[in-house]
Write a structure and sequence with these properties.
The complex is a heterodimer of chains A (108) and B (311). Chain A is α+β, with helices and mostly antiparallel strands. Chain A has a single domain (2-101), classed as Roll (Ubiquitin-like (UB roll)). Chain A is built from three helices and seven strands; from the N terminus they run ββαββαβββα. The longest helix of chain A is centred in the last third of the chain and has 10 residues, at 92-101. Chain B is of the alpha/beta class. Chain B has two domains: 6-123, 2,3-Dihydroxybiphenyl 1,2-Dioxygenase, domain 1; 154-308, 2,3-Dihydroxybiphenyl 1,2-Dioxygenase, domain 1, CATH 3.10.180.10. In chain B, 19% of the residues lie in helices and 37% in strands. Chain B has six helices and 17 strands. Chain B has helices at 19-29, 76-88, 163-173, 226-238, 291-295, 304-308, and strands spanning 6-16, 33-37, 43-46, 56-60, 65-73, 92-98, 109-114, 119-123, 152-160, 177-184, 187-197, 205-209, 215-222, 243-249, 256-261, 267-272, 284-287. In chain B, the strands form two sheets. Chain B has a nine-stranded mixed sheet. In chain B, strand 7 (109-114) and strand 8 form a beta hairpin. The chains are: A alpha+beta (108), B alpha/beta (311). The A-B interface holds A 34-42, 44, 57-63, 92, 96 and B 17-18, 62-65, 242, 244, 261-267, 304-305, 308-311.
Chain lengths: 108, 311
């Protein structure tokens, strides 16, 4: 099991190497983390990996270009941790987190 | 009464990220039948009760989404007439002819792009391979159907910006009727969504006004009844398919429905019910303040994922 830290929300969750990062987020049961198609096609779950190693399955190039992927931008539903990871939600997903966390108190 | 002009949706061509997992989804989960593969590596599938060679074409690509939607017209003469009308309407661009045989078992197709950025095709010829049942003294359904087993590819829901332009093209040029519409609550002349039919179905295609071009919300396949929709929901869990939402009922079309995603994120729907449309049936209007109930008749509230997730 690996530790995954979401920098925007200071949340942490555990994620096995055979589970994608989105599955771990979903199991947090926080509303406001947008879950989309879960298949790499819709781009809703875009994140940037800030540290750690990971592997990815094929992602829609409409939502992650080759250059972005080289910079650590991935779709959480197609990314699997190889080590502990730190990530930040970007794009549509980040806006969703910010909007909902304005209303909900953060867990400590 | 004779149906003339555009008869029905003939095919939807989808892009998938990985071909074989997609084929397994459309055959084992949805329950379509593979009918062929071409030299480009595209996979052709049909629903069991369709006679024509294919209604779904899958192509491996770098992005998910819909390449184009094809429509069967009743004759070669209609194809000639409608293609001329579409070209001269000013409501379509990139008009061209795709030669016979480019799709397996299919005649030439007239292709054009709508003002919403969607590529559509008209065709008059596609070879029939049969619906798994004999034409003489048949049984009501065939043996050995897998997965959800829908009888037919029914419609697509698409997102685009120039809703008024695409509605004008489909109604005034292609002869579709508006069956239902969603309008702004404070301005009933401003359409947010339109459901269009060329048949007696509640819709053969529908559009929602969104600030984008060429986007795909879902392809829909028809089941027989609510029990089959529940069974489809069970299959989604059994096969660990990505669930979108449902099973539930739509206010719009009265359809009993469930939505899920293929492995590349293209949304699928299976549904049952609805009603019969006739050309003289009055239009049903939904106002935007009741949109929750219009889409999710039981929950009666909007779902951000349903509207915001598309390929």
């Amino acid at each position: 099991m690996h530790r995954v830290a979401i920098q925007n929300t200071k949340e942490e969750y555990t994620c096995g190497s055979e589970d994608n990062l989105l599955k771990g987020m979903e199991q947090l049961n926080r509303k406001g983390i947008p879950v989309g198609c879960r298949g790499g096609g819709c781009g809703v779950c875009r994140v940037r990996i800030e540290s750690g190693e990971y592997r990815t399955l094929k992602m829609s190039r409409q939502h992650v270009t080759a250059e972005e992927q080289a910079q650590g931008v991935v779709l959480a539903c197609r990314c699997f941790p190889l080590t502990d990871l730190e990530l930040s939600a970007i794009g549509k997903m980040e806006k969703c987190i910010a909007k909902h966390f304005a209303k909900q108190p953060m867990h400590t | 009464m004779a149906m003339t002009g555009v008869l029905r949706p003939s095919h939807v061509a989808l892009r998938v990220l990985d071909l074989e997992p997609a084929v397994r989804h459309y055959t084992d989960v949805l329950g379509l039948l593979e009918t062929g593969r071409d030299k480009q590596g595209r996979v052709y599938l049909k629903a069991w009760d369709e006679h024509d060679h294919h209604s779904v074409v899958l192509r491996e690509a770098d992005a998910a989404g819909m390449d184009y939607m094809g429509w069967r017209v009743d004759s070669i003469q209609t194809l000639k007439d409608l293609s001329k009308k579409v070209k001269e309407s000013g409501l379509a661009t990139d008009c061209c002819w795709i030669p016979a045989g480019e799709h397996l078992e299919t005649g030439e197709r007239f292709r054009f792009t709508t003002t919403t950025g969607h590529t559509m095709e008209l065709l008059a010829e596609k070879n029939k391979v049969g619906n798994c049942l004999p034409l003489v003294n048949p049984d009501p359904w065939p043996d050995d159907l897998k997965g959800m087993g829908p009888s037919r590819f029914d419609h697509c829901l698409l997102y685009g910006d120039d809703l008024d332009g695409v509605v004008k093209l489909f109604t005034e040029v292609l002869g579709f009727d508006i069956t239902e519409q969603v309008v702004a609550e404070d301005n009933h002349d401003f359409r947010i969504s339109v459901f269009l039919s060329c048949s007696t179905k509640p819709h053969d295609v529908a559009f929602i006004r969104q600030p984008m071009k060429g986007a795909f919300h879902h392809a829909s396949f028809i089941l027989d009844n609510w029990g089959e929709v529940l069974r489809a929901a069970d299959i989604i869990s059994k096969k660990k398919v990505s669930l979108d939402l449902g099973p539930t009922r739509h206010g719009i079309t009265r359809g009993e429905t469930i939505y899920f995603f293929d492995p590349s994120g293209n949304r699928n729907e299976v549904f049952a019910g609805g009603y019969i449309h006739y050309p003289d049936k009055p239009i049903i209007t939904w106002t935007s303040d009741d949109l929750g109930r219009a889409i999710f008749y039981h929950d009666r509230k909007l779902n951000e994922n349903f509207l915001g997730v598309f390929t």
